[in-house]
Each structure stands twice: as C-alpha cells, then as structure tokens.
Design brief:
The complex is a heterodimer of chains A (173) and B (691). Chain A is mainly alpha-helical. Chain A contains 9 helices and no strands. The chains are: A mainly alpha (173), B alpha+beta (691).
Chain lengths: 173, 691
C-alpha cells in the first residue's frame, strides 16, 4: 500500500497530467484499452482498496480515484473525447464545463418576489416565480412584463426579463 | 469477535447474510425462517413485534401494523409517491417537520427510517442469535435506482438500529457479486431484479476480479406487489358480480384480497390452475360470512400481469441504451427477486435478451449473500485477519445451510394462513413448488474460505454452471449433524460435489430439459428433504482452481445530479451512470450586495427543467464576508460517495478559505436533535424476543 506522502505527491501531480497520463494510456488508445486501464487504475486507487488504511491515506486515494473517474468518463465518450483532445491542443489538461467559460458562473438567484419593490409589481412577481418553478416560462414572461410595467426603473427586474427572453429563444417552439 | 453482516432490507422481506470461515449463508431465526417480513407492529402491551409475529397483526391490528415502508422511505410529504399511498394503506401517514413523511401508530408519530430501523434491529438480533457473536457493522442494500434522499434515509435507519453502515450497496450489484465471475476472462452480464416493490436492471462488465457497473435503470414503483393488486382487482370484480360486495370500498377487505392474490400468484408459478377461498370476506346475515372462492388459471394470471411485466423491458432498454449495448451483447442474464419466480417472467426475459436467464441462487437470498460478501470485504480492517489480496487456496463448497428449510416453505404459507385453509391448497402443502424447494439454499460460487492465517476471498465458479439453461444447483442442504458454523481454525468441512443440476421450471412448454438434469426432481416434485439429503455419488472434490484476488466493485450513480440555474433550468454536474465515488466543482457568485448566505437548490433526474427532476433540497453556503454583488465567488465541490450519497464542501475562490456548506435535504430529519430523539424512541421500544 502506498504511503500517504507518496499518494499526496501523486495527487498534486495530477493537476499537470492529461487524462491519458492519469490512466496511463496512449492518446490513440481504443475503448477496450481505456477500460482495461481504468480497471487497473481502480484496483490501485478505489476507496474499497483502502478500508484497512488510515483515514487520511484513504481520503487521498479517494481524491486520486475521482480524477480517474473524470478521465474515464471523458475519454470513453467520443464527443467528449474529441472536445478534450482539442482542449489538450490548447494546453489544457481538464475538460472545461460544457458552457463556454465567458459565461459567468450561474448566480444564485433571488426570487423575483424579492426583487420587485412595489406591491403591484410583487403581485406579478409572485406569479412569475410560481410559473417559472412550474416550467411555464412563456406565462412567466407575461407576468414579468406586467411587473416591470409597475416599476419600470427596476434594473434587476429588467435584467431577469432579459434572461427569460434568452432562455425562451433557446426553447424548442 | 464482532461480525459484519449483509442485510437485504426489502419491501416485503428482509434477509440477513454473513460470511464466516469462507462461506456466505443466509441466517435463519431460531425457528429456521430466513425471510424476515418487513413488517412492524406496535402491540398494545408496549412490545414491538417485527417480522413473522407482526405479519398476522396486519389483519387484527391494521392501524398499528406498518409495512411497505420501503416504498415511501426518502419520499417527502407531498411527493407523488406519498400522495398515492395515502388512503391506500391501513395505517395513518402525516406530515412531520420539514416536509418529512411520518407514520402514526398508537398515537405516536415515527419517521420512516425509524420503522426501517426496527426491521434492521430484528435482522441484527437474528444474526446475533445465529452466529453467537455481536453484530455491529453491516452492508445494507437498496434498489440501484434509489436517489440520494432514499439512500440517506436508509443509512439513518441503519444508524438508528445501532449499526455502523459499512456501505449502502445496490441490490443488483450485490447479486452479481454473489454469482461471481464465470471463469471467462471478460463477460457482460445483466441482473434483472424484480422484487416485491421495485424493479432494477443493471448491466455489468466482469473482467478478472473487477465488477464494473456499466449502467443501471429501474422503477421504484414496479414489483410483484403490483401483480398482487391486479389479481386482487379481478377478485374484487368477481365478488361484486357474485355477491354484490364492493371490496374496493373497504380497505380491510381489499387487504385480505391482496393476501389471497399473493397466494394465488405463488401457487400459479407451479400449478396450471388454482382456487383460493375467502369465506370470511363477505359479511352475511347474523354475523355469519358468505362462502366465496375464486379460481384462476396460469394463462389468466399471465394475461392480467402482462402489462406490468412488459414495463420492465422498457427499463431494460433504457439501461442497454445507456451502456450502448444490444440485448444480444450480454453473455449472461441473472434473475433476482421473488417475482422472477413467475414462469412468464423467465420466458419474457429469454425473449428479450435472446438467451435463457440463470437462476442458480435463491432469488430471495442472493442479494443478502452478495451484501454479506461485500461486508466481509469492507470489514477487513476490523478483522485483524486482513491478509494479502491474493489467496493461496480455493475451495468450491456450497453454502452452509444452518437451518431446516421446511420452515421456509411454511413461511411462504404463513403469509396466507389466516385466510386460506390448508385443505384448499393441497398442491402447496403436499407437493411443494419445486422452485421454492430448490431455492432454499444458495450454492454460492464466490466464497470466502479459510487459508493459511489469512481470510481468503475466493471467487470462482466452475464452467459447468453456464451450460444448462434455467438450471439451479441443488446445494447440499440442511444436514442436521452439521455444525451451524464451523469454528475458526477448524479444518474445512469435507468437500462434496454438487448434486445434479435441476431445471428451473421457467422453461417454455415442450422444450427439452437440459441434458445434465435428471428428470425426476423436475417432473415429479419429490419430498424435498429426501432429494436434498441423497448422498452424492462418488463424493470426490475437484482439484481446487487457482486462487483469485478479492473482487472490486465499481458501481455507478443511477441519476444525474444538477443544480438549479437561471430560468428554472437544471445545470447538470454529474451524469447518470458515472462511477462512484466521483465529484464535480462549480462556482457560485453572490447575487446581491452584502449577501452572506448563498443557497443552491439541487436535484436528481434527467430533465433539463429543474422542476421536472426530484428536488433533493438545497446547499447552504454560510458565513460569506459582505461584499458587492458578484464580487465573492464560492466554488462548491459536489461529491457522490461510494454509497451513492451526496456530500458537499466549499471554498472561497479568492481567498482559498473553506466556506461552511450544509446540505438540507427535503423531508429528512437528520439534524443531531432529531437523531437523538429518534434514537431515544428506539431505546424506548424493546423488540419482542426471538423465537
């Protein structure tokens, strides 16, 4: 069983390794080779292999294992693998999230009810919140437009309407 | 020394298994019953009855007798599952704090994990009586399709029962572990698990000692119980026609019909037709009841349950699609769960997969045996016998059957005794269903055997097993002289070869029996004891095959995990069928000036719309330094652990400091105060002693 230090050093080194390096396969490895490599990787780092190790050793191994899972899931699905190969070409070692990185991380939303300031506006905002939760985006848009008519200066509300328009544009007709 | 057990906590029955001295076995209670009905009854005396003693209380004390909890565990108040169950169950459900679903018995509310904890305590007591050792640790199985809430609730139940939960294990994966590899270098198997209340199908890749789950799919509201309901509906129609009595309007009467319907279903697995009578269902004049009986043929039953059985194949297709496989790509299909005893299920499975399914281990016990093996694997650390992964010797013995098995056939009948007179069921009593008899004991291929100073984990299966379709190994069975469990250090019991294989009576009519199987045990169901006790001819053990290293399970998460994002959408973090443990990190920014707490709603499911998925609750990130909106970014790592349960940790992107992160699950009472209250209630309810 590897020592805690050895595992920690290896874990840190994963930040610079490609998925191919983590699984120790060639960049042209086929599906069977990837699977074989993942099995071997699992035998080395799966948490079940560390049940009789000290907790910190086991958790370090678990962190390594999760990186291997990430690599395996990416490389064993062709579209992701192609995207990853292009990312590697740009010097990346991990697959970026599906959305382009220019989009800011999804902000945690305040409800429309919280954003609306006037009583009339709040009435519409409550309905809009409920409709969004129910997935009825078009109806929610109507309510949000009404809310904005009550308080045309509410910039945050206007921004949320804009987002809703964008989402609706993505919706299938 | 304390032992670790595997517990199959089922919708209708619970089974506890243990590996000792290299042999996995299901443990019977002092009377020999290995199936513990998952029923809890709160007796007026203050005692809590669990299992068989509670079963009959369903009829005499229905409001205080709780069953089918597994269908509701981890389902918050207001969820479709709870709404559907309300009014259909004879006991009271109510809303607890934080949208928790509770049951009320004798005026006291209990959370659902508490009820399951009573069943687990009974399983623990049975295991302790059977092994003579304290039981402190367990692997508990759940349907593969269980979501985070259901898994977390099951784990709480284990803790309340005084068990350290070594692992929440998926039932089909446990079954695959019990069957073990077939000796081939690589093979693909499907586990078709149709239980009392849930259906799962799991596709695995077996390569050497690695069991990799490729995909799993399931339906948590599809099982043998649904077939009982369909049959009970037919009975209700018959009562209405013959006696103008509407059983549907009376939950008690319909409950009795369901018990009769289950007896009918079981009987028709071996008989071509069957008649049940419920003379006490229809009230007549002067307190007397009107005699009524109902006859059904197997084709009628099959026609009635066709829709339910067909639903399983939609789920199978889903799992195959997820693994990018066709039915013909599978090398083996294993049947698990009591409902697979219906001949039609075996036939339809064969049609779908194009190969006969395998049933070599009792489908009621195989999950508990697999869980026991996993428990032994994970308990290595505590058992100071942890040795090298490679083990020197292998043996190929069957499971030690510790208890007389006649009891189990009676246990099956015990379910129907209150309403079905034995005289009406000659087939069931005199010539018992060969399936039931054969399946009493599991011939466990993967065994854990004693070796030189180590606790070897042997995983081997002779190739003979695969040759004949639908075969069941007849294991060596309940020899009275045999010690219950061999003492450590003692020489291994003598090795005996397997008895001739027996055909599982799922075969299509007219098909020839497998060549290896002598026809007698199949065609004429003989007294099981005689057949099982027959000494094997020329008892010579085959040479031990080479040692196999301990198996490794790579399981997956059944559902995608996502967070709510702008516009009511679900931003997927972890895809369904990703191996566990796994994690994914996302950053979240504050949305308002001086915001100190950020809440992120989380859900499991495959829809892009958040509302269409199962909302798990929210992650609360607290203690954020006041700053302008958007200035603070918190990166949150969502981890699904080996139990399939979600954990989170968070840190401030700019400072790198840990941020407090807490998951608040919907309907879960997992805070320390609630846990303490539930634990106190467990302590206040002693279980009725065994036997």
């Amino acid at each position: 069983m590897p020592s805690k230090d050895a595992l920690s050093v290896y874990l840190a080194s994963l930040e610079k390794r490609t998925y191919y390096d983590i699984l120790r396969i060639r960049p042209d490895a086929d599906a069977a080779a990837i699977k074989r490599a993942f099995h071997e990787f699992s035998l080395l780092y799966h948490p079940d292999r560390y049940v009789d190790s000290p907790r910190d050793v086991a958790s370090t191994a678990s962190e390594i294992y999760k990186r291997g899972v990430e690599a395996y899931r990416c490389l064993s699905r062709q579209p992701l693998r192609e995207r990853y190969d292009r990312a590697v070409g740009r010097g990346k070692v991990r697959l970026e999230p599906a959305r382009p990185s220019t989009v800011p991380p999804p902000p945690v939303q305040r409800t429309l009810t919280e954003i609306a300031k006037t009583p009339r506006g709040k009435q519409h905002a409550v309905k809009a919140d409920r409709l969004i939760t129910a997935g009825k985006l078009e109806d929610a848009r109507v309510q949000l437009v009404s809310a904005l008519q009550c308080e045309p200066d509410n910039a945050e509300l206007a921004e949320r309407l804009q987002i809703l328009y964008e989402v609706l544009a993505l919706e299938p007709p | 020394m304390a032992v670790a057990v595997g517990i199959d906590l089922g919708t209708t029955n619970t089974v506890v298994g243990v590996v000792r001295d290299g042999v996995a076995a299901a443990i019977g209670d002092p009377d020999g019953y290995r199936l513990i009905p998952s029923v809890v009854s709160f007796h007026p005396s203050g005692q809590t009855l669990v299992g068989r003693p509670a079963l009959d209380r369903r009829l005499v004390d229905a409001p205080s007798t709780i069953y089918s909890v597994k269908r509701l565990i981890g389902r918050p108040w207001g969820s479709p599952e709870v709404e559907a169950a309300r009014g259909k169950l004879p006991f009271e459900l109510r809303e607890g704090q934080g949208a928790a679903t509770q049951v009320v018995a004798r005026g006291e509310p209990y959370s659902l994990p508490e009820i399951s904890a009573f069943v687990l305590r009974q399983a623990k007591a049975v295991a302790e009586a059977g092994t003579g050792e304290p039981v402190e640790r367990a692997v508990i199985t759940v349907p593969a399709n269980f979501n985070d809430l259901q898994r977390a609730a099951t784990k709480i139940a284990g803790k309340l029962a005084g068990l350290e939960v070594l692992r929440i294990l998926n039932e089909p994966t446990a079954a695959a572990l019990a069957y073990g590899p077939q000796g081939k270098e690589q093979e693909r198997i499907a586990v078709f698990d149709l239980g009392g209340g849930t259906f799962d199908v799991t596709v695995l890749d077996l390569a050497g000692n690695v069991f990799e789950v490729l995909a799993t799919a399931g339906d948590t509201a599809l099982g043998g119980d649904d077939i009982d309901v369909v049959v009970a509906e037919r009975m209700a129609d018959d009562l209405l026609k013959k006696h103008r009595f509407d059983a549907r309007a009376q939950p008690m009467a319909f409950g009795r019909l369901r018990i009769l319907a289950e007896a009918m279903k079981r009987a028709l697995s071996s008989a071509d037709q069957h008649t049940v009578s419920g003379d006490d269902i229809v009230p007549g004049d002067r307190g007397k009841t009107v005699p009524w009986s109902f006859r059904m043929t197997r084709p009628e039953l099959e026609w009635a349950s066709l829709g339910i059985v067909e639903r399983t194949f939609k789920v199978c297709q889903q799992a195959l699609d997820a693994a990018s496989l066709r039915p013909a790509d599978l090398d083996r299909v294993i049947l698990v769960g009591g409902a697979t005893r219906m001949p039609m299920v075996g036939r339809k499975v064969e049609q779908f997969f194009g190969r006969p399914p395998v049933v070599r281990i009792n489908p009621d016990e195989v999950v508990a045996l697999g869980a026991a093996i996993q428990a032994a694997l994970l308990d290595r650390a505590r058992q100071k016998t942890a040795g090298p992964m490679q083990h020197p010797r292998i043996d190929d013995r069957s499971v030690v059957a510790q208890m007389p098995t006649q009891a189990e056939a009676e246990a099956a009948e015990g379910l129907v005794l209150p309403v079905v007179s034995s005289a009406k069921m000659p087939a069931a009593r005199k010539a018992p269903d060969p399936v039931v008899n054969v399946a009493e004991t599991a011939a466990l291929p993967g065994q854990l055997l004693p070796g030189a100073g180590a606790k070897p984990l042997v995983f081997d299966l002779p190739a003979e097993a695969s040759s004949a379709p639908f075969e069941l190994e007849l294991p060596r069975q309940h020899e009275p002289s045999r010690p219950k469990l061999t003492v450590p250090g003692a020489p291994p019991p003598p090795v005996r070869p397997r008895l001739p294989t027996m055909q599982y009576p799922y075969q299509a009519p007219g098909a020839p029996p497998p060549a290896a199987a002598p026809p007698e045990p199949v065609a004429t169901p003989v007294a099981p004891a005689a057949a099982l006790h027959a000494p094997p001819p020329a008892a010579r053990a085959p040479a031990p095959p080479p040692p196999r290293p301990a198996p490794l399970l790579i399981d997956v998460t059944p559902h995608s995990l996502g967070v709510e994002t702008v516009g009511g959408f679900c931003d997927m973090l972890i895809d369904a069928n990703t191996p566990v443990p796994c994690d994914r990190t996302r950053s979240f920014a504050t949305a308002a000036d001086n915001q100190t707490t950020v809440r992120v709603r989380i859900a499991q499911g495959e829809s892009k719309r958040f509302a269409e998925n199962t909302c798990l609750g929210e992650v609360e990130l607290a203690g954020i330094q006041p700053a302008p909106r958007g200035a603070t970014q918190i990166s949150v790592t969502f981890e699904i652990d080996a139990d399939g349960i979600l954990n989170v940790r968070a840190k401030n992107v700019a400072t790198g400091q840990e941020t407090a992160a807490r998951i608040q699950l919907v309907g879960a009472q997992d805070d320390p105060a609630a846990m303490a209250a539930m634990a106190a209630r467990q302590a206040a309810h002693p279980l009725a002693p065994l036997g």
